[in-house]
Amino acid sequence: MLKKFLALGGLLLALGGPLAAMELVLATTTSTYDTGLLDRLNRAFEEFLGVKVKVIAVGTGASLELAKRGVVDVVLVHARPLEDRYLREGWLINRRDVMFNDFVVVGPPDDPAGVRGLTDAAEAFRRIAAAEVRFLSRGDNSGTHFREMEIWKAAGIEPRGKWYLISGKGMGDNLVQASFMGAYTITDRGTFIAMRKNLDLEIVVEGPVKGGDPALMNPYGIMAVNPARFPDRNYVLAMAYIGFITSPAGQRIIAEFTVDGEHLFYPTALKADPDFSEYVPRDWRG
What we know:
The protein folds into two domains: 2-100 and 219-278, Periplasmic binding protein-like II (D-Maltodextrin-Binding Protein, domain 2); 102-216, 3-Layer(aba) Sandwich (D-Maltodextrin-Binding Protein, domain 2). It is globular. By secondary structure, the protein is an alpha/beta fold. The chain has helices at 2-15, 30-34, 37-49, 60-68, 80-88, 121-131, 143-155, 171-181, 189-195, 235-245, 248-256, and strands at 23-28, 52-57, 74-77, 92-107, 135-137, 164-166, 185-188, 202-205, 217-225, 258-259, 262-263, 266-267. The chain starts with a helix and ends in a 19-residue tail after the last strand. The strands form three sheets. Strands 1, 2, 3, 4, 7, 8, 9 and 12 form an eight-stranded mixed sheet that branches. It has a two-stranded parallel sheet with strand order 5-6. It has a two-stranded antiparallel ribbon with strand order 10-11.
């Protein structure tokens, strides 16, 4: 209780007003929102500090653009090359690793492209393209879409044709549409687990969590909007949120969050040895 009191007092001094009147604006991916994890984390943060968290769940690309426009205080996303670009340009600062899960390729139970059990996502994409069976892309510059395009590039294919479809939707809506159409798609494991009871889709290519393709690893990072660019944003509260998410308490919530007994995310913020590459663009040495 004393530690909480001191934390509240310090934030009051830094913020210059009552915390109850404050609102933190968070832009994030649809996967953290659709799974229900964000509700759990934000509820705990709101109870701890008595502030409101406003969530804008739009995907990684759109979240980063909102940060660049100074519309939000903090972003929680999952496309490291894109994150590095915005860090390098100075729109965001103080990046921290938060957690990971993985991507999986899902498709209709009869697996018309014959990709079930492959351990190479690029080879699975080649077979889907060769068979010209439906593949539904989010096409929305999200972290999932970014990874999908990396896999097509690794497969040596520029997807096009009547078999390649674009939803322009978030992860949950994309899965529902893929299920209705009998199409393949790529999804983060967490969203699929949270929704699979209502989907006629199955995992056909595993990610590294279940011993599959390492290229399907899906790490998440959190960053504050740079107060030197946007002094009107709530930088102190953003850093309080980053501190909470990466604290033992926040990491425990992530570790204990399950759906149907399965873990959806795995915390990575607490490390015995420092990894300074998480804080800055990975090519910062030039």
